[in-house]
Every structure is written in C-alpha cells, then in structure tokens.
Write a structure and sequence with these properties.
alpha+beta; Beta-Lactamase; Heat Shock Protein 90; five-stranded antiparallel β-sheet; five-stranded mixed β-sheet; 12 helices; about 20% strand; rod-shaped
C-alpha cells in the first residue's frame, strides 16, 4: 500500500475511534440524565397523588359492615387516576383492604421493610416486575395523631418511560451513526487532499535517491504552511544536490582533461626517445620537456589537494599580526622583475597610514602574488599595473588594477570557479591550471573577506579585496556558505 494511503487510513481510523468514544460517552451521559429526569418526574407524580389520597381518607375508618361501601367510594375516587396507574389501600398491619384497577398487581400483604419505613413516616419507592412488565411503586403511610391508619400504595407502569427512553436511544444511535459516516467521508476526503502531496513528494524523493535531481515539486493552493516549508526545503536540497553533482562531474571531467594533456605529452616524448637514433642533446631536450610536464602535474595535484582540504576544513589558518604595507612592498619587489621583462610599469600606491592585519601571511601572500602574476601576464608590453591599498572602516581595501586585455562580462561571474578558463589554450601554454583564482577566493573567504572583479574588455581589469582587520577565521569555503 502506498505511503500516502497508509497514513490516510491510519489517521481516519484513529479519528473515527476517537469520535466514536466521544459520541458514545456523550450519548450515554445524555441518556443517563434523561432517564434520571423521567424517574424523578414519575416519583414526583406518584408522591403528589399519594398526598391527595391521604388527605381524603385520613378521617375515614371502614367498619366491618361498611367495608364494601368504603371500597366502592375508594374505587370511585381512584377512577380519576391515569389509565396506567393503580392504587391499593392496606391496613396498618399490612393486609390488603381495597384496590382499584389491575387487582392482579396488588400484593395481598406488605413486606416488613415497607412497614418499617411507614413507622418513620417515609415514602417507600421500589421498581418491580409484574407479569413481565416493569412498574414503579410508592407506598406511604396515612397517619393521624401519630398513629398509622392505612398504607397507601400507588403503582405506575414504566412502559411509557421505557418507550421514551427507547426512542431516545434510537435517536442517539441514529444521529451518532450518521455523524460517524459523515465524519468518515469528510475526513477521508480532507486527508486525501493532505496526503496526496505527501505521497507525490515521497515518490519524488525516491526518484531523487535514484539520481533524478531535475524534478521539483509544486504544492496545491490549499496546502498548509508546514507542508509548504517541507517542499521548499526539499526543492532547495534537490537544487543544492544537483549543483554539487554537476560540479563534481565537471570537476572530474576537468581533472581528467587537465591530466590527459601532460600525460599525452609524456607518453609521446618517451616513445620518441625509445625509438633510438637520438643524440645526447635531443635526449636532454626530451627529458627537460618531460620534467616540465611533471612539474605542471605536480602543481596541479598540489592545488587540487589544497582545494580539497580547504573544503573539508583541514587547513587551519596560521593567524598572526602582520603589516599590510610591508607585505605588499615585498611582493612588489618580487613581481617587479617579471614586469620589467615585459616593459610594464608596476606602481605601488597607498601607505598614508600603516595597516595592521590579523591574518595568515603566507596565504595572503599567495593571493596577492597570484593576482599580480595574472595582471602582468595578461597586460601587453608597455602597459601598467597598479597596486593600491587603504583603510575602509574596520577593514583593509586592496586593489590590483591593470591595463590588460580585460574580461568579458559573461566570464566575470565564473572566473573564480575551478578550471574555468576564458581562453582554453593560453593558460595551459603559460603553465596555468585554472585553479589559482579559485584558491585565492577560498583564502579570502576563509579570512571573512570578499574579492570582486570589475573589467572592461580591451581596457583592463580591477580586482578589489576587502579584509577585516580582526576576525574569527572561517577554515573552509563550505563553512562560510553554510552560514
């Protein structure tokens, strides 16, 4: 059975059980209250009728010769009673004197319990079964001057009360049954509306587990906020997984592509050397080329290892106080040699006030040197590269600007991605792996900073780096993305 139908069935059954318990308890309470009201009303009627009879016969005493006329008068008086009420008169000793209707229902003598209650001038109620019918009996003493003259008994049939209670029970059961059926139908429909999106979401998650990350889920308009949040979270997770899977596949393809070229060169030149007829100079040239390719592969592997460890948070930053001006001055001197070889003017600005950072000097040196090398590499001869730094609030702002070939706007948002190359051939020929800017961005992000690029094709590029003066380092790019 599908998950949605199972949940729908369980919720419906549990709801019905709870409803049946509530309706059953409420119906029983209503039935009990109505039964007590009818019983109290019947007892009140019997008690009122007994008082009327007692007043009529308190002054009358039958003689032996006049007992017949006394009973006739008694019968005439009892005619005024309802059709389902009988009355009997007993002597003070409990023997039957007179009775009205239903003589077969009049007991010949009263029990000792009734006689004892009469001595206390208390009415005695009891319910009896007579010939298969239930009757309510009231026995009261007729007292004069403290003496019991008679015992008066009124008998009322419970058929009317039982009929009313039976109709009430039938009404309660019918109403309860209708309520249960109606509730079950409404509950089943509403739960269907609720669980059908859950069932679809479960099937979608199964497909997601099988690797299908392209499908997203849209909720119907009546879905609740909680379900909407669940679907939004699932769609976001699917989107992140899809992006991560795409990056992993792209990364694998890029690594394969990057390693294939030097390996192909190594294989080809090694096979060429093994063919023989090579003098010493040719062999040295082949070995030198192989060594160069091995060096490139080593740099590529080191960069990949660095990025992998950085994402796992396995490269802690060695934070220390350092002077930004001193660091940039040192890098300026190192890059100046490369700039002079291309007749590029390398300018160092800023320094109006000293700026002290709490950072990993070796990692920042790697960032700035990478940006300077790229700026010089892609600036034509006779161009200019400017390094400027200044204090911006509680952060340091470093700008590396060149008059090089620039970067198209369509490429600017991707240049910090791994292996991303604007020109696939020039970087490989120049020894680049396409990982330098990705590593630079990780280092800046790990320092809780930011790096941005602004470029105009044919006019040059400007990289702006913002670094807080003091901060708690973030050891990996992933940690910053989570936050």
């Amino acid at each position: 059975m599908p998950v949605g139908r199972q949940l729908r069935t369980r919720l419906t059954l549990w709801s019905l059980m709870l409803l049946i318990l509530l309706l059953g308890g409420g119906g029983f309470f209503c039935y009990y209250i109505h039964q007590q009201e009818l019983a109290d009303s019947l007892d009140s009627q019997l008690l009122s009728a007994s008082r009327n009879f007692s007043c009529s016969y308190r002054e009358v005493a039958p003689s032996e010769s006049g007992q017949t006329s006394f009973c006739q008068a008694f019968n005439r008086h009892s005619i005024r009673l309802e059709g389902n009420v009988a009355v009997a008169l007993y002597s003070s000793q409990g023997s039957l004197l007179c009775h009205s209707k239903h003589p077969d229902r009049a007991q010949p003598e009263l029990s000792a319990d009734i006689l004892n209650s009469s001595l206390l001038d208390e009415p005695f109620f009891e319910t009896t079964d007579i010939q298969g019918d239930r009757w309510r009996q009231l026995t009261t003493p007729v007292i004069k001057n403290g003496q019991v003259l008679y015992h008066l008994r009124l008998i009322h049939s419970l058929a009317t009360v039982e009929n009313r209670l039976a109709k009430l029970a039938l009404l309660l059961c019918s109403a309860g049954l209708v309520a249960v059926i109606a509730f079950a139908i409404v509950q089943w429909v509403l739960l269907g509306l609720l669980t059908s999106p859950l069932a679809k979401l479960a099937r979608l998650m199964d497909r997601t587990g099988e690797g299908n990350l392209s499908a997203t889920f849209e909720l119907p308009f009546f879905a609740g906020q909680e379900l909407q949040q669940l679907v939004i979270s699932h769609n976001n997770l699917t989107e992140r997984l899809s992006g991560s899977l795409h990056k992993a596949r792209q990364f694998s393809a890029d690594v394969t592509h990057e390693l294939r070229t030097p390996l192909t060169i190594l294989r080809g030149e090694t096979e060429l050397a093994l063919r023989g007829n090579k003098d010493r100079e040719q062999l040295l040239e082949i070995l030198g080329s192989n060594l160069e390719e091995i060096g490139r592969m080593g740099c590529l592997i080191e960069d990949l290892l660095l990025l992998s460890k950085s994402e796992q948070g396995e490269i802690p930053l060695k934070m220390e106080a350092l002077d930004l001006g001193t660091l940039l001055q040192e890098l300026h001197e190192r890059a100046k040699i490369l700039a002079e070889s291309k007749h590029i003017k390398l300018e160092l600005k800023g320094g109006e006030e000293p700026i002290s950072l709490f950072a990993d000097g070796a990692r920042l040196r790697q960032v700035f040197l990478n940006l300077l090398t790229n700026a010089i590499k892609y600036t034509p001869e006779g161009g200019r590269v400017i390094v400027d730094w200044s204090l911006q609030g509680e952060a340091a702002r470093i700008i590396i600007e060149d008059t090089g070939i620039g970067i198209d706007s369509e490429h600017q948002q991707h240049i910090f991605d791994r292996f991303y190359r604007i020109d696939k051939t020039r970087n490989r020929n120049d020894g680049g792996s396409g990982l330098g800017l990705a590593i630079a961005k990780w280092i800046v992000d790990a320092h809780a900073g930011s790096i941005r690029v602004c470029s105009v094709p044919g006019q040059g590029s400007k990289f702006a780096i913002i670094l807080p003066l003091t901060h708690q380092p973030s050891h990996s790019v992933n940690e910053r993305e989570k936050n």
